[in-house]
Predict the 3D structure of the following.
Amino acid sequence: MSFNRFDENNFNQFFFFHSFPAFERSKKRREKLTSRKSKSKQKLVYATKKNKKIKVKGEFSQAGLHGQTVVEKPDTIPPVITLDTSSATSSDASAHIPELIRDKTAIVDGRLVPLARVSEVTAMIDLVGELNRQMGTALSYFVSSLTGTGYDILTADGKYYAVFPQVIYAKSIESSSQEKSYLHIKLVQDIQSGEWHILKSYQVNDGSLIDNIRSEINLLIQAGQFVSSVDSLAYNQTLYVIKHYAPGYDLTRLLREEISFEEKLFASIKMTEAMLRLHHHCQLLHCDIKLDNVVYDRKSGIATLIDFDVSLSMEGSAMAVSDKLRGTFGYLAPELLRSENKYVFNEKTEVYAFGMTLAKWFGVEAFLSSASGLSEQTLFRPELSSQQSLVLPLIKAMVSDDPDERPTFEGVLRQLQALAPALEPRKSFMN
């Protein structure tokens, strides 16, 4: 019997005849570890006693301790260390439940797996994973009937991620082989730290898609958004990619809310700063800037760029060349649409797409006809407000047909900041 993803039918016979006796033996070994020092590689672990730090030798790696702060029991020498690794994590991370989760009632204290159960759950998963490895299979995905938590759990790089069942996004992926592949995106939570992440599950039915996924992973690493990945292609034709979760909503969703011009201006400054970081620090061209691919958190004032599927690395240059047109129509610079077979992406093509994004964000798209030929939008267009008139000249310059007339992102940032000199210290517009 060998399988990578447990289901209840496979598990019933396997577990009760193989796992339970071994689990009891493992439990006894863990109890012994809590009463004596580990014989593993010696490291220094700090314990707190009467507000003073003392050094305690030994790393109880099998018991789950890896350098966390340890609270020593009063009048107990030597200390009995039985810490759960999750007890040393930040409460802030676990307290925040992502806005994308519709039903938050079942989540207690911000955690899918209660803190008190983390040690028990991880021990069970480690045991079953080890038993499966002895049978020649590397197990990484554990369904809820096994975990006893009500959630599937994915293991990756020594961490345990509880999978929230709500599907955020799903699509089929066409290929030349006529075999459709599928992508499902869900939220996952590191059950030890409480941090939330995005899980992209690719069911791969066409081998040509694998190279695209590997390329996406490299881009996520370059953008600083990659967390981990799990290759289960040999077992269930699935490749899992875990990336950082960006709190907030995309701009398309935010436009449904009542947002003041002041807040939109502040968010625009943060978006521009994110673009500068992407270009100068990450050396990436996004190539698909639009409302859907910018996430803004109204509470923290943080703007995050997402979806790097078609991004290009500048590799020390100020441009990147592709044999494929990348991006979304309505945001593509005119010079890209005029090109054939060879498409040059650079800062000016990014500025154009960002300008179109800001035009929609501020509601001035209908007033760009003189700059981008959108003459059909001049019909029945609304009246331009005094606040919109402040940003319109900048946005018109950003979407100019002539790339040389478009400002740089540094120039865009300076002009936005000049319009809002008192906004920068403000972090939240939420009550």
Observations:
- The chain has 13 helices and 17 strands.
- The radius of gyration is 26 Å.
- The chain has two domains: 90-244, 249-419.
